[in-house]
Amino acid sequence: MMEMWTTDKKILERRYKKEIERSPENAAAARAALEKCIANKPEPPVQQVLIVNDATPEGIALKLSQSPSLLLLSDEGGTILDKRFERKSALYNTLWSGQPVNVERASRPGFRLNDVRLTILILTQPVIFNKFFTLTGDQIRGNGFLARLLFCEPGAIKIMTTEPHTATPVVTQQCASCFRKKSFGSQIRDSLRASRERRAKSKERICMTLSNAASRALERFHKENMDTVRQNPHMGTFEDIIVRKREQVVRIAALLELEKDPDSTVITLESTNSAIYLIEFYFKHLIYKLESLREISPAEKLDKWLQKRIITTAGYIFQKSYILQYAPYTLRKKCVLDEALDILAEQRKIRIDDNLVVYIGNTITPSELAKN
What we know:
Elements: H1 2-22, H2 28-39, E1 51-52, H3 57-66, E2 69-74, H4 85-96, E3 101-103, E4 111-113, E5 117-122, H5 126-142, H6 167-181, H7 184-200, E6 209-210, H8 212-231, H9 233-236, H10 239-242, H11 245-260, E7 266-267, H12 269-293, H13 298-313, E8 317-319, H14 320-326, H15 334-346, E9 350-353, E10 356-359, H16 366-371
Parallel strand pairs: 1-2, 2-5, 6-7
Antiparallel strand pairs: 3-4, 8-10, 9-10
């Protein structure tokens, strides 16, 4: 259709040009025909896209305006996880929360994203993610993007494999029952088809609710997590991530419920327990990763160095001048060392007597400490 229109336009342009050269006063008919052709330019068909491998946030927003269900899929995550990602993550956070997005562009008319679904699946090597986190970790954690991820590093830690948990057979049973009824691919196709039909008919999206038992289990799970944050100072540093676990559980539980029964609108306790089990798996991986990438503070470096020195010197008393001379380079500035000493003193790991530092963090002997 577009090719035919382009051909007609070229013919009318040549005709109009000839009429102008021959007799300008008689070119009105040719001009009117050309203007009518231009006004009737056909709209190019919108190409429905389900999967993109690499795209800017602007490109993803444009694709979502044309196809409201989109998957950003990459097995080479380095092309996506770069320094510029912190700018991209704001759009992903808004879409994750289900909020409408108004997109304004100077070069083209603006548009509004509403009732769209974006799924992101990124595979990358650990070294690539480590570098990415070093560059953008503060930003993507500060704006909440990390807490919205389901992070997994296979082989990094052994969790959820040997620990018994009542939810394990439930997850297996639910997945097995789904695949007995239909393949995973056909389930996805049916869901996408249903969503297109719903939008075409301007119907409201289906909302799911928690059963009473599921709601109680979810609140109990959330309370246990918040109690852990308050009682464990170490876990308190991950409060921004842990607080998201409840919402992540609801999302996964709803998906599990729909896999089990596509016509269901109530999330059962069974699906909620399965989701809790899965969320614990992902969040333990994420927290373990963040802990492994966390930069050790001067106080922690001093504590470890002192414990090693206790073994080699067979003593607990150190002179400040000795620490300044032989401690790790980051501690060889008096202001840095004094601050680290004050922190360890507050933690009752050392006692400061004038120019002497006495390590009191361990009550065991140097030989016993060496064995550990």
